[in-house]
Design brief:
- This protein has about 260 residues and is of the alpha/beta class.
- Helices cover about 50% and strands about 15% of the residues.
- The chain contains 11 helices and 9 strands.
- The protein has helices spanning about 10-20, 25-40, 50-60, 105-115, 145-155, 165-170, 175-180, 195-200, 210-225, 225-240, 245-265; strands spanning about 5, 45, 65-70, 90-95, 120-125, 140, 155-160, 185-190, 205-210.
- Helix 3 (about 50-60) links the parallel strand 2 (about 45) and strand 3 (about 65-70).
- Helix 4 (about 105-115) packs across helix 9 and helix 7 (about 175-180) crosses helix 10 (about 225-240).
- It is globular and about 65 Å long.
Length: about 260
């Protein structure tokens, strides 16, 4: 029997990222112990990036050969390519829950400042409401097909506003990134390591160093719709070629088969 464990959302690191206060020591000890037992028993462990591969190996004293990198991707055939509008109002989409720890308040303030300048900008948050939200912000939760066909398709740009100061966010590789790319939407993100690496490599968005820069980039794409379309097109092409879940699944299966063969020698 082989045990394959995905460690895409490390519980302790996520607890630090999503908590306003430092997590309780008892919670940390419990999850570290549970992780240690689970990961030691696993035949193979799946992580999202090389950072997590080396980090998990170091923290839990594991052999690197049992940890495989399997990045997130997108269901390309189910996400239609729909580039940003060339004129008219501009819809900004954030896919995720509205949490202060995710800097959603800063995102709303940045867009509010642009609305005050007269820009026709809308903000749509596709996720649960966990904090007070201005009444001009559209927010709701959807199942994935409805999200794709209604929210994602109707958006002009998509954003990832997470604070880089929290390790789990800084090294996150969220699935939303690849959904954004697959839909042909330009992406504006804070300076997150893994997200920035993808956006820079494929020239499919812009990376803001602070919230002033974030607002500046939104306005830049609002006024330069051709640039927005070009960045979105680049993302779609990259998603089709490298981040299609069907292709990633085939690659993972081959890697697991090879790893099983090596282990049995």
């Amino acid at each position: 029997m082989k045990i394959i464990v995905d460690n895409f959302d490390p519980p302790i690191e996520n607890a630090y990222a999503f908590s306003e206060k430092r997590p309780q020591v008892s919670l940390i000890v419990y999850h570290r112990t549970l992780d240690l037992i689970t990961l030691r028993l696993a035949s193979f462990i799946l992580v999202l990036s090389d950072f997590w591969r080396y980090y998990i190996a170091k923290i839990y004293h594991l052999k690197l050969r049992k940890i495989l990198v399997c990045p997130n991707g997108a269901l390309i055939r189910l996400i239609p390519y729909n580039p940003p509008k060339l004129k008219g109002s501009f819809t900004v989409l954030y896919a995720g829950s509205a949490l202060k720890v995710k800097d959603i308040d800063n995102l709303i303030n940045a867009l509010a400042s642009l609305k005050e300048k007269g820009l026709l900008i809308n903000l749509h948050i596709a996720g649960a409401q966990k904090m007070g939200i201005s009444n001009w912000v559209n927010i709701d939760s959807y199942d994935w097909p409805t999200f794709v066909n209604n929210c994602l398709r109707a958006s002009d740009i998509c954003v990832i506003p997470y604070p880089p100061s929290r390790m789990a966010f800084y090294h996150s590789l969220p699935a939303k990134l690849f959904d954004y790319m697959a839909a042909g939407k330009p992406i504006i993100s804070t300076n997150l390591y893994e997200v920035s690496r993808i956006i820079t490599a494929f020239n499919c968005g812009l990376i803001a160093k602070d919230w002033k820069g974030f607002a500046f980039y939104i306005e830049k794409l609002y006024r330069n719709r051709e640039l927005a379309r070009k960045l979105g097109y680049n993302g779609r092409k990259a998603a089709e070629k490298l981040f299609d879940y069907e292709l990633l699944a085939e690659k993972l299966l081959k890697r697991l088969i090879n790893a099983f063969k090596v282990e049995s020698l």
